[in-house]
Each structure stands twice: as C-alpha cells, then as structure tokens.
Specification:
The chain folds into 5 domains: about 15-85, Nucleic acid-binding proteins (OB fold (Dihydrolipoamide Acetyltransferase, E2P), Beta Barrel), CATH 2.40.50; about 90-180, OB fold (Dihydrolipoamide Acetyltransferase, E2P), CATH 2.40.50; about 190-405 and about 545-555, no CATH class; about 430-485, no CATH class; about 570-650, OB fold (Dihydrolipoamide Acetyltransferase, E2P), CATH 2.40.50. The model is unreliable at about 15-20 (pLDDT under 50). Strand 4 (about 60-70) and strand 5 form a beta hairpin. It has about 650 residues and is α+β, with helices and mostly antiparallel strands.
Length: about 650
C-alpha cells in the first residue's frame, strides 16, 4: 500500500473517531409537551432535543446524541439524536384508524409519538376503532412513518386485560415471545439424555420435596434430606438447571436477557422464558426426573454447616407441597414426611437466629393478594404474613446463594477476581437516617450509629419493641425508606440487610437472568477452566434496570386492582392508617384491604388551615392544633376511583 493511501486511511479513521467522540450515549425522556431530554449515562446532566431532531427514537430508548449547541454560561446543551442503540418498547396499546386503502395505529400514550402505518394484510382482523396491541416492525431513519403489525385484539368488555397489557408494554416487557424463540423452546428434548445423566451426581433416590405457593407452576427449587450420621444430616438445595437448556448466543438466551426477569401481576405472570421451559422442562414437578444445579450441605442439628458440595445433579421430586400444607404439619407436628419437615424447620430457625445475631435486619413482610373472579375482577383481599413454612425455604435459599457467592469470590483469572453479578445492598444513607432517628426518638427508640453493625442492632431492637404497637407500621415503613436499594454489580460491597459479606442470586433461574449468569460462571469453575465474563458489569446494570421496571409495573398493577376493588365501594367508610404525609394532603391505607388513597388538603380546608411539619411527618391545624401524623388511625370515606390514573380519593371522616 502506498504512503499516500495509508495516510488517507489513517485520516479517515481519525475523522470517524473524532465524529464518534462528539457523540454521547443516554436515555431519551420525552415530556408531555413533546420536548425531549437525553439523560447521559455516567456523564451527568442532559441534552435537550427538539421533536424534529428525534430521528426514529421514542421515549425510553437508549440513543446516541450529538451536541449541536452549548451555552457557555449555563452549560445547557441542545442536540440531535443520530442513532437508536436499543429500544425500551416495541409493543404498544392503542386503536386502529382505517380507511378503504390505509390503516394507521394511534397509540394510547401520554407521551407524544408518531402513528404507525399498518399494512392491511397485518391487521389480524382489526376494524376501524378496534383497540389493539401493535408491534413496531420497521422504522428506518429515512422512513417518514414507522411500520407496525397487529399482534393482539383487546375486547372492549375486558378493560382489565387491556390495562395489564398496557402496563407491561409501557415498562418495555414484550407481551409474547417471537416465533423463533417459541420454536427453539419447542425443539428442546423432553426426555433426559442418558449420557448427560451419567455426567451428573445422581440424587434421584434421596427424598426430595418442593414447597411453593398453591398457585405456582414454575417450581425452580427443591430440598432433599437424609440422615447420614448420629448428628449429621445431608440437605440438598436443588435448583432448575436452566443453563443446560438456554445456551449463550441462541434466540432463547437473547430473549431471556432482554426481559431479564418475570413480571408478576395480580392476574398473570409475564414470564422471562417460554412456558415450555418455565412450566414444563425446568419446573421441578413431582414424580419427574429433572436436571438441577445443586448445593449439598452436610449439617448438624444446630444448623452448622460441616461441609458442602456444589455441582450438577439429576433429581426426582417425591412430593409437591403448598406453603399452607407445610404450615399445618409444622403446627400439628404430624403429616406426610413430618419428621423431615420438622428437622428442616428446626435447622432453618437456628440458621435464621444466627443470621440476625450477625447483624441481619428483621423487617417483617406482608404480601397482599387480590381474590379475583373469573373475569379477573377483585372481589376480596388476602393479607399473607411470612410464616415458618416460608422461612424454612427462605433460609436454605439464602444459605445456597451465600455459599455459591463465597466460593466464587475466591477464584481468580489472570490475577483478577472472577467477575460475578453479586447481589449487593449498601448501608443506610446518613441523610435519610438522620430524620428517621429523630422521629424514632419521639417514640422512645434510640439509635447507636457508631458502626454499621450497631445501626442494624438498633433497627432490630426497635422492630422487636414496636411489635403489635400502633406505631409498628409507620416505623417499619419509614425504616425501610432509609435503606439503599439492592442491585446487581460486579463490585462486591456485601449485602448490608442480610449481613452477608458475599451474596449472589443462584436459586431462581427460571425467573431471573442473573441466576443464569451465576450458573454459567459456576459451571466453568467446576470444569476447572474458569471463564471471566467481560460483560458482567454491563449485564448486571441491565438486569437491575429491568428489575426496577418490573417492580414499578407490579406496583402499578396492584394499584389498578386497588382502585378497581374500591370503585364498587364509593361512598362507604373504612378504618385506615395514615401511610404518608405531604404538603398537599396525606395518604391513608385501609386496614382491611391495604388499599391506599389520598386525603387532599382541599378536602381538609373545611375543618382548619393545615400546615406541613416535615420532620414530624405530620399536618397540623393552625387554629385547632389538630394533628394528622404518619401511623395515626383515621376513618375515611371513598369519594372517587379513577382507573385510568390508578388513583383513589378519600375524605377524612370526623368521628363523634
């Protein structure tokens, strides 16, 4: 090659690098007015983008943006989107506008977005005005209109179904699996390969059980138990071997990673994996041989781990229990395999006690479930508390997760720690902790903040002291708000809430992608050739983001059901507890249904002129001195229920 050509090529490369260096990556947020802002990743700040400069980007998409103007005084930037790196959402809910020759899809979106052109052959039976789910199939930069196809018809009488699908679509969770993914799942063998069985530890002869919610279909964990000595027992924690079926580089894996988590709404599960895998091949159903990844512990009756083994196994579940069935056996001390369940229960309680002694924080958890009729309309509410049957499973899952993380943390590749998606939880933020401590002191609880372990002990002491008292709910809720959010990251800072130095997720690969990542990493270590996944941090961030989106979606789904439930009770009064206070009013959670609504300051103006006292989490009347404080019991009347906004409005009722 001539020197002239070499120089020309180098110049082209430099120009390309220079052009790319002016581009920043971030997430586009579109306001209701139509203006856009690209929130820059890791750089801080944002870049304003006018609607004409969006290119083919939509709200929530990850994009590259080029800064075209910058104010030297304010530092404000204006830019133009040059590329869509990845889409947040490809399915949308809306309605069809159809003429004789054309059809367009008009989205039900609060954020401005273009209408989609729908070829008549892709209407799937939709008529003019039909409410539908549409998939974006093509939108090149030069195309004026994006092209879509109808993938679902929404019946006008089933408003609930449309609402749940809309929540999932808005959160970026696909409503169905692509054809090639379903086909790949259908091709997976249903019969276990004898050669693969011969490579695994065969534990089919050991008594093995599953304990799950009564309505569960994806059983991804099982426990085995056998006595091996006078005071020596073998407890196996067996986890569905999803990584055996879902291999890197396949459509199944790409779709699972994209979703990263299953989403649990009140009337449905939007799964991470097709049902063929989640409910059939990998589900540890009774009386079927299954491939598993296992942590097998030699233990004594005190719950001390004497030794452990990690590896791939084949198991056979002998019985499937619901939590309620196990609780009956634990309470009565008799029933099918009662001796095994009681032995596991005693060990679990010993492990649990040691965990709290080591500094784990004992926040109690309540699960609210709606009883639904055949049309998924809520007709009742069930409040479920964590009982010993739940704790039995929880403690052994925590033990397995912790053990896997601890073992893998010791492995090095080329002198560096083996990357792993650790599940970490930072210590409380001092800025959030300070006002909470002031509030707790008013109820007689003093905090020792000399070190993180002392803070945890103070929390546990407070939680033990308030059990059953009127202020229990408020102090628990406010205490939880001081805590950091648990996330996935390759940087292991430990898990503060559980008091674990090493922790990862290993026990739910059917519904969480990080568990699949851990299984694959562990497999390379067990094979004697540890492989460092260089994308661990990037993938961990994606999984954390999808987990947050799923949690927000689940909250929105529950809120929808709350509004739908109380819509039938407008005008009725209920006992409630003040669950939050703001300058514009206070929120109340009904005692019986755990449904939350707002008592606005406007509705209180008939009684007094109230002011917000932030540090006291209260509203105080200027004339009467009447106080509404978080945790106070009140009576409310349901005055409005807006399904579209998922909003409940209450009025305070003055009791005689």
């Amino acid at each position: 090659m001539s020197k002239h050509k070499q120089k020309s090529k180098q110049k082209q490369k430099q120009q390309k690098r220079a052009a790319t260096s002016h581009l920043s990556k971030g997430v586009l947020e579109v306001t209701r007015s139509g203006m856009g802002y690209v929130i820059l990743a890791g750089e801080g700040g944002d870049v304003m983008v006018k609607p004409n400069d969006f290119g083919n980007a939509l709200d929530g998409d990850t994009v590259r943006v080029k800064v075209i103007k910058e104010n030297p005084n304010s530092g404000k930037k204006e830019g133009k989107i040059t590329e869509v790196v990845s889409r947040k959402q490809t399915e949308f809910v809306g309605h069809i506008q159809r003429s004789q020759h054309h059809a367009f899809f008009v989205p039900d979106s609060t954020k401005p977005m273009p209408h989609l052109y729908i070829p008549l052959k892709d209407l799937a039976g939709a008529e003019d005005g039909s409410r539908v789910v549409v998939q974006l199939v093509q939108w090149e930069k030069e195309d004026r209109k994006p092209v879509g196809k109808v993938v679902g018809l929404l019946s006008p009488e089933n408003e609930n179904d449309a609402a749940m699908k809309e929540l999932l679509a808005q959160a970026g969770f696909p409503l169905s699996f692509p054809e090639e993914v379903e086909e790949a799942a259908a091709r997976l063998p249903e019969v276990l390969d004898p050669q693969e069985i011969s490579r695994r530890r065969d534990m089919r002869s050991v008594l093995t059980i599953t304990i799950d919610p009564a309505d569960a279909k994806d059983f991804d964990d099982a426990l085995s138990f056998q006595q091996t000595g006078e005071d020596e027992f073998e407890v196996g924690v067996h986890i569905a071997d999803v990584s055996h079926y879902v291999e890197p580089g396949t459509p199944l894996n790409e779709e699972a990673y994209k979703r990263a988590t299953s989403v649990y709404l009140p009337d449905r599960v939007n799964p991470m994996l097709p049902e063929k895998i989640s409910n059939e091949l990998c589900s540890l159903r009774p009386h079927e041989d299954k491939f598993t990844f296992s942590a097998v512990f030699k233990m004594n009756a005190k719950g001390d781990v004497l030794s452990h083994w990690l590896g791939r196994t084949v198991i056979h579940s002998d019985h499937r229990y619901a939590y309620e069935e196990v609780q009956v056996i634990l309470d009565a001390g008799e029933g099918l395999h009662a001796d095994v369940l009681l032995a596991l229960h005693k060990m679990a309680q010993k492990i649990r006690k040691k965990r709290f002694q080591a500094g784990a924080i004992n926040f109690s958890s309540q699960e609210v479930r709606f009883q639904l009729d055949e049309n998924a309309k809520p007709i009742g509410v069930v409040v479920k508390e964590s009982k010993e049957s739940h704790q039995l499973i929880e403690e052994f899952m925590l033990l397995a997760n912790r053990t896997v993380a601890k073992d893998l943390s010791k492995i090095q590749v080329q002198g560096k720690p083996l990357p792993l998606p650790y599940r970490v939880h930072d210590r409380p933020d001092p800025e959030k902790l300070e006002p909470f401590m002031v509030f707790a002191r008013k109820h007689g609880h003093h905090f020792d903040v000399s070190d993180p372990r002392a803070i945890a002990k103070s929390f546990n002491d407070m939680l033990a002291n308030v059990k059953g008292k009127p202020e229990q709910h408020v102090l628990e809720q406010l205490g939880i708000r001081t805590m950091a959010k648990a996330v996935y990251t390759a940087e292991n800072i430990g898990h503060y809430g559980l008091a674990f130095e090493h922790y990862c997720h290993f026990t739910s690969p059917i519904r969480r992608y990080p568990d699949v990542m851990v299984h694959r990493t562990l497999a390379t270590v067990l094979a004697g050739h540890p492989v460092a996944n260089k994308k661990t941090e990037e993938q961990s961030k994606h999984c954390s983001e999808r987990e947050r989106a799923a949690m927000e979606c689940e909250r929105a789904g529950n809120k929808y059901k709350q509004v739908e439930f109380l819509k039938a009770h407008i005008g009725e009064t209920f006992a409630g507890v003040i669950s939050g206070v703001a300058a514009f009013g206070f929120w109340v959670e009904t005692v019986d249904h755990k449904c939350e609504g707002l008592v606005s300051m406007v509705s209180l103006s008939d009684f007094d002129d109230f002011r917000h006292v932030e540090g006291d989490y209260s509203l105080v009347g200027r004339r009467s001195g009447r106080k509404f404080r978080m945790g106070d019991k009140v009576t409310i009347k349901v005055v409005a229920a807006n399904l579209e906004k998922r909003q409940l409005d209450f009025e305070w009722v003055l009791q005689p």
